[in-house]
């Protein structure tokens, strides 16, 4: 029986691994042509001020519309883009699109509108990189650095290499703000929050998901919020899906919420229309929320 089981496992896993490897190779080669063929789209998801309901921030999230496979998740293709070096060009495209849209929303929605964009660890630490080009481009659009927020994960601060602190200093010099994404999932050492200049903490959605009065995730979220505020950081809760979660977070003093309760990420032109209807909190919706 043991022998049979062994053979089954063998014949099951080997082709699967090969298929997975082949799949990655094909996707990587498709990825090379994706920028030129305009297969990427930048989606935006609102970040809502919990006290007022106002929307003056959004996160940019990339989508790959593969001609045969349809939408491929960034969780699947960003690692391939990192391994192949394509992440550099993709990241530049995300930056340019973000700058174009934030310029419009600063003019038409709110003068301090902010767009946050994600940088993966390799992208962030890339050797010889600087934010000079970004700053020059922002200046050419008459945008201050504060128009943008760069989201990085806390794991980066752990290794605390000079590359990481240099990059954070460059961002600060450019006036671009920094958010710690997925906070609470890594080996967060809180001392890093003091050491580095961080503007926002994004509480990971694994905490938001299980929020209930008197739950341990509630206690952790409250502690994170109090600590962040004492250090001068603003807090954004990810993955807010229910009115209960929103209300518990608001009561705990959380500054902003992001999640399907408010809106899913949507294509830029759709988000543009969404902002026209929803950026300013309406009296009616505030009354309804209470
Ligand atoms: P992230 O930065 O933590 O982004 C939040 C993810 O949660 C997004 O997934 C978003 O669609 C999803 N989300 C938002 N609200 C909810 C909710 O209420 N419930 C649930 N279940 N999910 C929610 P998405 O867009 O698939 O992106 C996944 C990850 O891919 C991002 O995680 C980010 O790490 C990475 N990523 C996305 N765009 C880029 C990019 O332009 N560059 C880089 N380097 N990474 C990116
Ligand atoms: Mg993010
Ligand atoms: Mg996140
Ligand atoms: Mg995440």
From TrEMBL:
Domain EAL: 24-279
Domain of life per record: Bacteria
Protein name: EAL domain-containing protein
Origin species: Duganella margarita
């Amino acid at each position: 029986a043991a022998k049979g089981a062994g053979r089954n496992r063998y014949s099951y896993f080997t082709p699967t691994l090969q298929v997975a490897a082949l799949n990655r190779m094909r996707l990587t080669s498709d990825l090379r042509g994706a920028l030129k063929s305009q297969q990427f789209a930048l989606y935006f998801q609102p970040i809502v001020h919990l006290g007022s309901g106002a929307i003056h921030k959004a996160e940019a999230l990339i989508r790959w519309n593969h001609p045969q496979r349809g939408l491929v998740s960034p969780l699947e293709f960003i690692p391939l883009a990192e391994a192949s070096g394509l992440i550099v060009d993709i990241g530049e495209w995300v930056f340019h699109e973000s700058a174009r849209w934030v310029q419009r929303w600063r003019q038409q929605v709110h003068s301090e509108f902010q767009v946050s964009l994600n940088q993966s660890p390799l992208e962030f630490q890339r050797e010889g990189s600087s934010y000079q080009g970004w700053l020059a481009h922002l200046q050419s659009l008459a945008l201050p650095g504060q128009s943008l927020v760069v989201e990085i994960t806390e794991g980066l601060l752990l290794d605390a290499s000079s590359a990481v602190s240099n990059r954070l200093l460059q961002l600060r010099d450019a006036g671009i703000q920094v958010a710690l994404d997925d906070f609470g999932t890594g080996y967060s050492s809180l001392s890093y929050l003091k050491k580095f200049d961080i503007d926002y903490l994004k509480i990971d959605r694994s905490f938001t998901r299980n929020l209930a009065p008197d739950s341990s995730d509630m206690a952790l979220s409250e502690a994170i919020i109090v600590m962040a505020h004492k250090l001068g950081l603003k807090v954004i809760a990810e993955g807010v899906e229910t009115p209960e979660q929103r209300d518990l977070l608001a009561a705990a003093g959380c500054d902003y919420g992001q999640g399907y309760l408010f809106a899913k990420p949507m294509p830029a032109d759709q988000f543009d229309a969404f902002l026209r209807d929803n950026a300013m909190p309406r009296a009616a919706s505030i009354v309804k929320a209470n």
